[in-house]
Amino acid sequence: MTESRSASPRRYAIRLWSVHHARALERIYNGLAHLLLRLHPMFAALGYQRFEPPVRFLEAAVKKPLFGCRMCGQCVLSSTGMSCPMNCPKQLRNGPCGGVRANGNCEVIPDMPCVWVQAVAGAEKMAAGDAIRQVQPPVDQRLGGTSSWLRVTQQAKAPSSLQGPRR
Amino acid sequence: MTPSPPDRADGQAASETSGRDINPAGVHLPLDPLPGHASRGRLERILRRGEFAVTAELNPPDSADPDDVYDRAAVFDGWVDGINAVDASGANCHMSSVGICALLTRMGYAPIMQIACRDRNRIAIQGDVLGAAAMGVMNILCLTGDGVQTGDQAGAKPVFDLDCMSLLETIRTMRDEHKFLSGRKLTAAPQVFLGAAINPFAPPFDFRPLRLAKKIAAGAQFVQSQYCFDVPMFRDYMRRVRDLGLHEHCFILCGVGPLASARAARWMRTHVPGVHIPDHIITRLDAASDQKEEGKRICLDIISEVKEIEGVAGIHVMAYRQEEYVAEIVHQSGVLKGRAPWRKEPNPANEMAEARLEESARAPDQALQALAAAAAEPET
């Protein structure tokens, strides 16, 4: 939370840019997911764990500047209009709280645009924007600091081999 | 001046209406569960029967004196269908909602226990849900909670382990699937009527009805709104709610309350997150000679408008530090239409505790003898 409090307005500007280009980012994401799925035989053969450090590094390098990513390990950007809900001071995963200011800014950090007001705007641009209506489970703290990309790939290929956030 | 509750004024009509919520086998017995009902509570019964419900918020005391809670609950006696026990509202320290509910259920009141995700993680919350249900809490309201910066403990660590949505889903799973979030089995599920909050008066406005839909999908059976001072805005929200058919899946209670003065209104507008007070309300208060009286009149005007909106199932009166006016406001608004809300319902837990006390009183010598025998045994 201290991180976002000290964040410069420029940081918000990049995040806002990402939301503004949610449609394009959605396409890139879909392409990336496809690519990772095709690499699955290699990941599986050599062991997913071996790829964790480099993929995690890459994922953080891309997502931290673009989205203010916190590496929660259970990315929901495609369901939140490319606006990362971990930047919400309440880390809400299911929509804006009742405290959003009249100008659309955050209740807790008055000069920050509400993450969820942005999410709604981003979702409207996306092809699969309706995913914002799904109820998301709570964050599984055990997955923090791990690669979401690898997990999603592994889960898609072998859902039983991995335990996702338990419901 | 508090008017006397309608059942005192008109005993016959009162017993007719509340008689439907009495166990025919005896007034002291808990209610039988009705088909399709989640709880055995009277708030759910009233709403499902299509009556206009009234709930109110109890101002939590900054004290350890149970009388402070009972005094504050007494002003609502016979006027409301449920009393909200707030969970550190505005992130200010007060007696806990669990504590307030323990006191209220002991006296047989029908509390609506609020749970805010700000202060406790999923382990603490699920434990509190079981404890509350065991004490006789039939209604639970799931909230995200105001940020810690608004309260008197701004340096506190915000928890927000769950959000209101996952909290709703967690309690619904406990109730309907008899298991914790982890999947571990419960031996007795909490039978609670699940509620949530809505704020139609904060952006993003287009998403607010969809958020209600999400809350309903997560388990909300009734919702209470933030203070409504802007009726056209509320009406617009309700129109979109009806377009989505949400009012048929959830009981919507509109939040109302008297403003004490124009100054108080201005303060609320800037200090209480999510409260929207239009300028014309403040102008009207400013122009009045008796601002407190005018605040009440504005509240009554708003009630008379919102109660006519299709899909509004009741009102939630938040008269912070003016709780003594709740009875007057409810009476003058006429929303109860002569109905007398049940005042206190017998708590089966009391009887259980008495039976156990009696049991242990019957066999105190035995226990002492066993202890003495154990003590006399030579240590090896």
UniProtKB/TrEMBL annotation, chain A:
Residues 143-167 are annotated as: Disordered. Residues 144-167 have a biased composition (Polar residues). InterPro entries: DUF5981. Residues 58-141 form the Methylene-tetrahydrofolate reductase C-terminal-like domain. It comes from the Bacteria. Pfam families: DUF5981 (PF12225). This is Methylenetetrahydrofolate reductase C-terminal domain-containing protein.
TrEMBL record, chain B:
Residues 1-37, 339-363 are annotated as: Disordered. Its cofactor is FAD. Keywords: FAD, Flavoprotein, Oxidoreductase. It catalyses: (6S)-5-methyl-5,6,7,8-tetrahydrofolate + NAD(+) = (6R)-5,10-methylene-5,6,7,8-tetrahydrofolate + NADH + H(+). Pathway: One-carbon metabolism; tetrahydrofolate interconversion. CDD domains: MTHFR (cd00537). Pfam families: MTHFR. InterPro entries: Mehydrof_redctse-like (IPR003171). Residues 353-362 have a biased composition (Basic and acidic residues). The keyword Mitochondrion does not apply. Belongs to the methylenetetrahydrofolate reductase family. This is Methylenetetrahydrofolate reductase. It comes from Pseudohoeflea coraliihabitans.
